[in-house]
Automatic annotation (TrEMBL):
<keyword id="KW-0489">Methyltransferase</keyword>
<dbReference type="InterPro" id="IPR016980">
    <property type="entry name" value="S-AdoMet-dep_MeTrfase_Alr7345"/>
</dbReference>
<dbReference type="GO" id="GO:0008168">
    <property type="term" value="F:methyltransferase activity"/>
</dbReference>
<keyword id="KW-0808">Transferase</keyword>
<dbReference type="GO" id="GO:0032259">
    <property type="term" value="P:methylation"/>
</dbReference>
<protein>
    <submittedName>
        <fullName>Predicted methyltransferase</fullName>
    </submittedName>
</protein>
<dbReference type="InterPro" id="IPR029063">
    <property type="entry name" value="SAM-dependent_MTases_sf"/>
</dbReference>
<keyword id="KW-0732">Signal</keyword>
<feature type="signal peptide">
    <location>
        <begin position="1"/>
        <end position="17"/>
    </location>
</feature>
Length: 281
């Protein structure tokens, strides 16, 4: 029964919208899927990160994004390295992982501390992370992530609401940077907390939930075309209307013990999982 449930979940990860560009979404072969599975199962991952797999679905998500071991992949604002723990071993031998983290010279103290902690994490385990290439990603339009047209994939997980909180022009710069660093035909894989239709921009910033329409608009304005959509990270139990926004839910649980059991039962947020393509020239 568990194998059947897992097979159904993996199948759901590859449910795709009709490609609007006429381009076929990536389909991985069995060897490539097994490489992702091995990276997800590597013993270098921290236990607290592994326990969140049920909500973040890393194997199914990376399979949907078409990530393979020989690619150059940009991980956007990796924070504490949740996905880095998976991507680094996956790409270590044949590919390249560019961790586009916060600017270490940022005026924001949290950004500086998070970057320093991430660097310390990499330095502590060189056998896993010595080939990770660090880059800085901020809102300066003149600071490129890496060489233009050099990446096969750009991956961003639950970051769009932060950019919108900084301002629409700042969010615009981010998507433009992703477009610039990708090769023609390269893909942007994006996961974000999903707001209800017609949610205002102010409500998005306050709640941390973003409408799919807004994300698609930002991507399209940068030159991307929507390639495919997956339901893999959806959570129908999440109503997206909590008193402290998305931070009401785990893992933050901002309300503390107030209705804690209810929010634990709800689980982590309902999330859109979108795949965009940089069109061939």
């Amino acid at each position: 029964m568990r194998k059947l449930a897992y097979a159904l979940l993996l199948s759901a990860a590859t449910v795709q919208a009709q490609p609007p560009t006429g381009t076929t979404p990536p389909q991985l072969d069995q060897t490539q899927v097994e490489a992702i599975r091995a990276a997800v199962g590597n013993n270098g991952r921290t236990i607290t990160n592994v326990t969140r797999d049920a909500y973040r679905n890393p194997e199914q998500t990376l399979t949907f994004f078409g990530v393979t071991p020989e690619q150059t992949v940009v991980e956007v604002w990796p924070g504490g390295g949740w996905y880095t723990e998976v991507l680094a071993p996956l790409l270590r031998d044949k590919g390249k992982l560019i961790a586009a983290h916060f600017d270490p010279e940022s005026d924001v103290g949290f950004f500086r501390r998070s970057r320093a902690e991430f660097e310390a994490k990499l330095a502590e385990h060189p056998e896993r992370y010595d080939r990770v290439q660090l880059a800085s990603l901020n809102y300066d339009p003149d600071l490129a992530i890496s060489e233009p047209g050099s990446a096969d994939r750009v991956l961003t997980f639950r970051n769009v609401h932060n950019w919108l909180a900084a301002g629409e022009s700042e969010a615009k710069v981010m998507f433009e940077k992703f477009f610039a660093v990708l090769k023609p035909g390269g893909l942007l894989g994006l996961v974000e907390h999903r707001a209800k239709v017609n949610t205002s921009l102010e409500q998005m910033v306050d709640s941390g939930y973003v409408t799919e329409k807004k994300v698609r608009e930002l991507a399209a304005n940068a030159g991307f075309e929507l390639l495919s959509v997956s339901p893999v990270n959806q959570n129908p139990r999440d109503t997206a209307d909590h008193p402290e926004g998305v931070w009401t839910l785990p893992p933050t649980l901002r309300l503390g013990n107030e209705q804690r059991a209810h929010y634990l039962a709800t689980g982590e947020s309902d999330r859109m999982t979108l795949l965009f393509i940089k069109p061939e020239a």
